[in-house]
Every structure is written in structure tokens, then in C-alpha cells.
Design brief:
The chain has 530 residues and is an alpha/beta fold. Helix content is 21%, strand content 26%. It is built from 15 helices and 25 strands. The strands form seven sheets. A seven-stranded mixed sheet has the order 14-12-15-17-25-24-23, with helices on both faces. Strands 2, 4, 5, 6, 10 and 11 form a six-stranded mixed sheet that branches. A hairpin with a 2-residue loop joins β23 and β24. It starts with 14 loop residues before the first helix and ends with a helix. 56% of the residues are buried.
Length: 530
Amino acid sequence: MDQTGVPSGSGRSGPGRRLFLGLAASAIASLPGAAARAATGAGGSGRRLPGGTRLDTRAENALPGSPDWRITRPGPARAVEGFAERVSIRAGEPLGLRVSTTCAFYTISAYRMGWYAGMRARLVWRSGPLPGVLQPKALVDPLTRMARAEWRRTAQVDTSDWPEGSYLLRLDTTDGQAQRFVPVTVRSSSATGRTVVVNAVTTWQAYNRWGGADLYRGTTGKKGSRSLQVSFDRPYAGENGAGQFLVYEAPLIALAEEMGLPLAYTTGVDVARDPQMLCGAAAVVSLGHDEYWSPEQRRHVTRARDAGTHLAVLGANCCYRRIRFEASPVGPDRTVVCYKDDYAKDPGYQRGSLPTNDFRRAPAPDPESSLLGVIYDGYPVDAPYVVTHPDHWLLAGTGARAGDAFPHLVGVEYDRVNLAHPTPRPIEVLAHSPVVCKGRPSYADTVYLSLPGGAAVFATGTMRWVEALDATGPAGGRANHGLDARAGHFTRTVTANVLSAFARGPAGRFMPAQDNLAAHYRDTATIHGE
């Protein structure tokens, strides 16, 4: 170890490196309690991080949490369910809700998701009893098989005192028989100097089967019966209305807020809509499953990265599907269009829009590897995660050694380096995990890369990374798939190191990647995916 507490022998030297590592070590030392232990294996001082932001993450998480936020009585289908009229709002903007229930009255409780001494949520607002109404079943478009709820507004909520963040609104019937979540983001007005958490709402919607079909399967289960478009004008069927948020996003939000980092919150829809959303951001965080991007979102993230904003990709299969937004009767950008292999039938494509197929595919190929350094390689897998570069500074405090394996951490989708596609260099492989996908041997890669503008990119290469942050006990404890406490400690430590370093300055300039692809892909044919 050198005097900063980061492993020596990494091939980097000079005053710039020492300055950056000193700043990173200072950031880690300031983490509270468990987060500091996750970053370094030692206790932290609790010192406040600098940088004035409208959201004071430390002060917010010092407020009392609400242990009763979880759903314990989901109740029968259609007993209560609802959706928000917008995926995000700014604090103070009215939030319209459309709720259907079989009960005469229901209430709304707004929980902001964070750390809160481990409780994970804080009650910010609660309504009184509101009159319930049973609204119509789903309407399904016969051409696109898109399901939507043509419901009337049942409540409008004043959000004046709501701090920025990711929220779950809980709907409770007053007879105590049913509960459901409605997710919504209170987005930040500025990302300058902050780490930006991007809720992957388009991917949640792509996998939402409320009303019969999603972008994968329809009512018959056959490929040809899937939707070609999906709508935000409907509840989420999964996780009691929370969609994919609780598995793929909430664990990272808890860790980042426990660390006290300056954070900003937004959604992929908002990044696409607002070219200035990421201006001056310290880092952008893509969470556990962030598959569906519009060309506008990709362009704005790429522009931010090239201007010096770091990118942390804490999942796999990121930026894989190219989509387009269209309006619905409720408002703009409420319909996600993705025809995939049937892109030529898309009326928007026929009018001159880009095809709504995979980014890497013709007729407008733009592989995601040019942004991320890695590229999606397959599904499904379940494999050990194998460390190959334990002395890298981002693995400080993990205790990992070369060859250490973490069972089940690679899955269920994975990414790898493949130079058959455009790939920024230099790029450093930190973990190179053998997998077999549908009989085909391959690898899942965790990478760190640096860019001329000072930005760095960290990509985990596995979809289970964020889920593993909650693994604190024996296999199968607080996470699925047999992930255990070793995997939890490893992922939390590395994630804390990444977020701390990315919040502190131009990691790509002070700690440039030392390209080591030749050590892992020993012949040209393998490196190029031939």
C-alpha cells in the first residue's frame, strides 16, 4: 500500500496521481459508518463532503426513516393500482395520479427512497382518505398490441416540500386489504458537481406486462404476439407496482445516500428531453438494468462523457435497444416505440426516423461499446465472478486476490470487451470471468477506461451487481440467486471506491487506464471476437 491507502504497484506515478489518490482517500475517509468500512475496511470520520447542492444528502438521511414503507398486504388483482401522469416532476410541480380500486376509499403515502440508518425510506407526505373508483380494464391497440389504461385523474398531489430523489408512492385501501406502489422521480434542477442517478424507467416499462403484453411476450407467449410499443399510461405489474426499481436500483441509491455524496436524480426520459440535464455533472450512474435508450439520451450522455463527466455502468445490457418516444393522450413522451426486428414496419421509420432496433444492427449500426467500452454478449448465464487485477486502486479494501471467485455474481446477462466493435482505449480489465452461454464459451469483463477529456468509465459487465449490494448473509440471504455476504462486501467496496473517486475529480486524467487486453485475450482472433 502507498500512503493513501490505495495499492501500490499499479504502474502509475507522479504528483498528479498522488494528488488524486489523496483526494480519493479523503473522500473515502469521510464516509459514514458502514459505507466507510465498505470502502476501506475501516471506520470513517463522518466529515461533511464539500460542495453546496440543493439536496443535502447527509442532512436528508439524518432524518428519521419509516420502517413500515414496504408492502405487506398486496391483496387481490385490481384491488388497488395506479400510475403517475409523469415519470418525473420538479419539487413543487403538481403530480396527477390515476388510481383504480374496488374499495370505497384509499390513501396515498409518498416515501422517498434512500438510506435513513438502514430503513431505506422516509415518509414525506400522506393523504387523507380519497374516494375510490373502479376504472376500466386495459385498452389494447390491435396494430401494435400496446396496452394502456384509459383512466381519469383521481388525485392531484402538491409536491412543494418534497426533496429530490426516487419515490415510491404507496396506495392503501382503507379497509386494510390491499396495497400497491407507484414509482415517480422528483428530478433535480441542476446536475453541476453532482453524481447523477438515472432511473431506467423505459426498461421498467419494456418488461411491464400489465394489460397483457410487453416488448418481449404477448398473451400467447409467442414472439409474434409481443407489443411493438408500450405505454407509461398504466400501472406496473411487477414487484407490487414498483417495476424493476427495488431489485436493480434501490440498493445503489441506499449506498450512495449512506455515503453522503452530492447527488442528483433524473430519468432516461428527462436526459433525452433536456440536452443540458447533465451539464457539469461529476458522474452519471447507469443502474442494474438500463437496456432501452433513445438516440437523444445516448447523444447527451456521450457529450457529457466527452466533456469530462464520468460514467459508472453498474449493470449489463446497457444502451442495447434503440427506442423512440411518442405522445399519448396523457402527455408527451408517454409511449416507448421499439419494433426490434420488425423495424421496417414502424411508421416512424418509414417517415425517416432512426430504426427502433438494436443499436448495433443495420441499417444504422452504432454499437454501445463506443460509449461503454464493453458490449452485451449474451443471456442467460449463471457463473462465478473471477478477479484478475486485484491490485487495481478501485479494488482497494476488498481483500480480493487474483483468481478469487464470487459464485453467481455473473448473470443473468453479461457484457465483455470485443474489439470487433468500436472500443475506446486504453481499457483495463479488472475481472475476466469465464461463462458458457447457450453452449458457447465466452467471458464477462469488468473494465475501467479513461478518455482524453479526463472522464473515466467503469462497467461491471454483469446485471447482478446492484442486486448483490444487498447480499449481507449466507447464500440466498438478502438477495436472490445464491449471492452471499462475500459478494455483498466486494460489490459495496468497489462501488464506494468508484463513486468516491468519480465525485472527486478527473480520474481519467490522474489515474489513466493501463491497457491490459493482451493479457486476457491472447490472440488477435479472440480479441476481435472472431
